[in-house]
Amino acid sequence: MPKTITTLRPRTTGGVDRPLASLAGLLREWLPGQRWFAGKDRPVTDLSVLSVTELFPGCLHLLVHAGHSAVPAPGGAPPAGDCYQLLLGVREHLAPRLERAFIGRAEEGPLAGLAVYDALHDPRAAHLLLERLRQPGAAGPLRFEADPAVRLPGGLAPRLLDAEQSNTSLVYGDAYILKVFRRIQPGTNPDLEVPEALAAQGCGRVPAPVAWFRTTEPRPATLGVLQPFLPDATDGWTLALDALGTGDDFTREAHELGRAMAEVHLALATAFPSGGHDETGPTARAMSARLEAAAHAVPALRPYVPGLRTAFDALASCDAGPPVQRIHGDLHLGQVLRAGRDWFVIDFEGEPSRPLAERRGAQSPVRDVAGMLRSFDYAARQRRPWRPEWARRCREAFCAGYAARAGWDPRKKHALLRAHETDRAVYEVLYEARHRPDWLPVPMAAIQRLAVWRG
Fold it and tell me: Using N-to-C axis directions, what is the helix angle for 388-406 and 366-380, rounded to 10°?
């Protein structure tokens, strides 16, 4: 039986949990250096184990709370911070092939003297994780579940994807891909909920989940999802950069992508009926609040705040747009795949920095459109000299393709589209400032354009 230790709240005073006695110092140094760690601009002031399960010998599954303030939040809530999922390997001697995954050697506590490493880099651990999904059941608070209609084969060789992302993905034999969520929030993750619902609608644009795992403690949450892998597919970002590099036009692909995204939106509207329109006033106020918070964190944004705010003021007084519905929530060229002549949409998790309830809520589909329009601009700025006309043609083609299938044209929703594009650019500024400072000029160029918008 797996051994499980659970504390429902992070500890801020007194002693530490027994696993943390071995891991605290190692994780404080290692976590901020990970691509998926959200608090890079804030020191880890509090680290606590929420649950630890011996998943199999030599591999511990942990949920840890990384706090960024030693001062307790009002009302007795836990300190500000995030919950992260870790799979840690523990060995006396570390094989050379695992050196890049090495976290450190524990100096005290129950793991004293043992080498600790990120087990998702270990083929043996990755293989055993798939076996857990092939044979649904429980391991302490963990629950492994699968679609009974799908028979998962064994013996598939695992490989870790190296692409930059906010989670960690393993590919098994070029047949399946397992996304292991790193930043955990209570509730059902949209990247499980949405593809499952779209599969029930017969929407072939989204790979359906075949297995998943979750936790029941300290609160129910989705931990990972296994889906079919498209080995011959290429993501839209790579295709766009290839077209830019060779001087090729990308408008036909952008037009077809617009049609595909409209199909997904129509399926989402059926799968998750909302029955309402966007309340532009509250939406505009939320956007303004995000702008103020971003400007506080990124000084370069501050001179443009008055001009950007006019986009949200215009939204507050405009007529309602298309009905709100479930959307993708973080749409860009890296979230779409082209295999043959078909486009597929992946990664429905939404923006991980936003609360899960917000990501699962009904929103304007214009938000997704704005995200893709911003992505064409991002792609165009990866080549010198910058080709704004290429981005403009792609944006027009995408909207035209979307309008042909959706029955309404995003380009005719001027105030709504400008507000969502501005909100997206503000998000990009904050993201790049925290994670990729060298990329900050890309969204800042859009900020300068949007701040002096003339329609």
Answer: 160
- Three-state SS at 127: helix
Asked if 67 and 48 touch (Cβ cutoff 8 Å), the reply is yes
Element (H, E) at 307: helix 305-316
- For residues 246 and 216, membership in a common domain is answered with no
Number of domains into which the chain is organized: 2
Q: pLDDT digits over 267-305, tens only? A: 999 999 986 766 788 889 999 999 999 999 999 999 999
21 and 71 co-located in one domain: yes
Please give the structure tokens belonging to residue 157: 């060789």
Please check whether residues 277 and 217 belong to one and the same domain. Answer: no
305 and 173 in one domain? no
Last residue of a domain, one of 204, 228, 252: 228
399 in Cβ contact with 409 (< 8 Å): yes
Note whether 360 and 344 are same-domain residues.
yes
Average pLDDT of the chain?
A: 89
Same domain, 349 and 372: yes
Tell me the residue range of the domain where 369 lies.
234-451
Cβ(70)–Cβ(48) below 8 Å? no
Which residues, in sequence order, are CB contacts of 103 under 8 Å at separation 6+? 26, 27, 30, 88, 116, 117, 118
CB 213 within 8 A of CB 142: yes
Alpha-carbon gap, residue 87 to 189, rounded angstroms = 19
pTM of the model: 0.87
pLDDT at position 41:
64
